[in-house]
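3-phosphoshikimate 1-carboxyvinyltransferase
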Amino acid sequence: MHFTLQKSNIAKQSSIKITGSKSESNRLLLLQALYPEIELNNVSNSDDSNLMTNALKSSSKVVDIHHAGTAMRFLTAYFSIQEGRETVLTGSKRMKERPIKILVEALKELGAEISYVENDGFPPIKIIGKKLTKNKVSLNANVSSQYISALLLIASKLENGIELTLEGEITSVPYIKMTLSLLDEIGVESTFKENTITVKPNSNKLEPKTLTVESDWSSASYYFSIAALSPVGTEITLSSYKEHSLQGDSALVSIYKHFGVSAQFHENSVTLTKENTTLTPLNLDLKNAPDIAQTIAVTCFALSIPCDLTGLHTLKIKETDRLVALKTEIEKLGGSVKITDKSLHLAASTAIKSMVSIATYNDHRMAMAFAPLALKTSIVIEDAMVVSKSYPTFWDDLKSIGFQITK
Ligand SMILES: O=C(O)C1=C[C@@H](OP(=O)(O)O)[C@@H](O)[C@H](O)C1
Ligand SMILES: C=C(OP(=O)(O)O)C(=O)O
């Protein structure tokens, strides 16, 4: 279903409650399956987290996780240690193009039994659950941190824990640190020194504990963009957020100062305020926060600021090739974009074309990143319900702050 967003003005003051982080949720759901004494609050209502919950409960042989990358990678590790169980883990057409070989090889090095059902190196995969007895493994850390988090999440259930050597430049580091912090919160010990991570085994029950998932910072990015495109004095309050987050995308707070957006934290929320600022070109390395690249590129386009975004080598294996998708859609709107396989250069724009129809390529972040442009001009977002992958109430929330949206 396509949505038309008429050129809109938003309320001077508004507030939004955003669902729990899908990254934290999908880690904690897996840990809860391993350690049922954990209780969770504010779990994400995203498709990806619902798919994770259902997959962990499912006893069927074929488990389909659709577009959910974290679920695919984390469950590959999880089913590898479900002794005696045979599982075929599959996903959407796009999931079958997202590489998994590095993780599969690492698990096999630990003793896992995994084979490819269709194409070598890609889902679907057949996993025969086993007791994994080895504990030392090394893997290339430059393709996806999700492979590393997957191994870390099951590590404490291995007889000897894990000693992981990370080769090459480590990408998306905050997501690895998030995994280790959550292990620490539930009482599993680990170390991360230089390029080696160790996790201690723990076959015992843990102290019963309730953990509250912080709301999703990647979802918050769209409100940083909205604030940046709004008149000076506009305030948007988002909950539930804290100043010291486990989520690397909380780097938004410092990044969006560049666009005149300040963030004040309260007990359980953060207020974004648009302030007067002089706009200058932006140079940014996003290897630690790849999911906010689309939001930032569109903010720059809307504000006519040239930008150079680097560290984007993981974008081409996400829900779509996000570099190509960004270039194609920004150029439809009148912008000029150059891409390599790891960077994006946006020239200063002159005008934004009106009523352009933005294709979303089964990528929630394409839909959400382009939506703030409605503060500048009318725009159509194709297949708008794609947002449910991470943020099902996105359009209702935009309406509640003043966006005029029709089907
Ligand atoms: O571990 C996680 O929760 C995630 C890690 C990142 O992936 P990569 O490590 O593949 O960049 C990120 O893009 C994804 O949305 C969520
Ligand atoms: C890349 C993403 O998700 P995943 O890799 O888990 O599919 C995302 O949410 O932007």
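thats it. The chain has a mean pLDDT of 97. The CA atoms of residues 102 and 371 lie 35 Å apart. bye
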